[in-house]
Amino acid sequence: HLKARLVACEFDQVPGVDFLETFSPVIKPATIRIVLTLAPSHNWAIQQIVVKNAFLYGDLDQTMFIEQPPGFIDNQKPSYVCQQHKALYGLRQAPRAWYDWFGTYLLSKGFLSSISDSSLFIHKDGRGIILLLKYVDEIILTGSHLMLLQEFIRYIRDIFITSLDLSFQ
Fold first, then answer.
1. Where is mean pLDDT largest: 84-93, 98-107, 160-169?
2. Which residues of 74-105 are buried (b: 16+ CB within 10 A; e: fewer)?
3. Cα–Cα distance measured from residue 60 to residue 98, given in angstroms and rounded to the nearest whole number
4. pLDDT at 99 over 70
5. β-sheet with 112-113: strand ranges across
6. Of the candidates 86, 84, 95, which has an alpha carbon nearest to the alpha carbon of residue 56?
7. Containing H/E element for 165?
8. Is 105 helix (H, G, I), strand (E, B) or coil?
9. Using one digit for the tens of pLDDT, what is the confidence trace for 1-44?
10. pLDDT confidence of residue 164
11. Ramachandran category for residue 70: left, alpha or beta (phi over 0 → left; psi -120 to 50 → alpha)
12. What local confidence, expressed as pLDDT, does residue 111 receive?
């Protein structure tokens, strides 16, 4: 069983041509402390998950082409290039593309981004509240009902491969 990982050479990227935005916000330490203090004071469960290969989910805003990787060059078409639609590790815009993609996914599930911290997402409905903290590919969830958390985690696992699932009661 062999695996390979394509990694882009970011040093070849030209700002304004190959990428526009590279900044990707992460959760503020103060927000983490507040939420991790709030959860136990309300007897809320805390769940942590890590999204594997998170940067590969992001969509690219610019048209980008990459050379065929060495060892995988098509002998019939050696001068052909590959059009890149998704982010790759090594692209300067990969963290931002992941943040944008995941944020859009959360908005589609009824979450709102906090005004004070754009990596804190809040979901409220008649059943309760979920607070989601996003730090790159790590996600911490807490909320008023364990069943609500577990339901949302199932949604995440239907789309992403996750690891390091931790639960604190």
1. 98-107
2. eeeeeeeeeebeebbebbbbbbbbbbbbbbee
3. 9
4. yes
5. 112-113, 120-125, 128-135, 138-143, 45-51, 162-168
6. 86
7. strand 162-168
8. helix
9. 766 666 655 556 555 555 556 567 889 999 999 999 999 999 99
10. 62
11. beta
12. 97
Give the whole-angstrom CA distance, residue 25 versus residue 129: 23
**Domains present along the chain, CATH in parentheses:** 13-55+92-168 (3.30.70)
Encoded amino acid at 3, one letter? K
Structure tokens at 21: 């935005």
Q: What is the pLDDT of residues 60-91, one digit of tens each?
A: 777 777 777 777 788 898 888 877 778 777 77
137 within 8 A of 50, measured Cβ to Cβ:
yes
Stated pTM of the model: 0.79
| Token output for 72 | 């995988």
3-state secondary structure 36-75: HHHHHHCCCEEEEEEECCHHHHCEEEEEEEEECCCCCCCC
Q: Residues with Cβ < 8 Å from 61, sequence gap 6 or more? A: 20, 21, 93, 97
Can you read off the two tokens belonging to residue 2?
Answer: 């062999």
User: Mean pLDDT: which of 5-9, 44-48, 160-164 is highest?
Assistant: 44-48
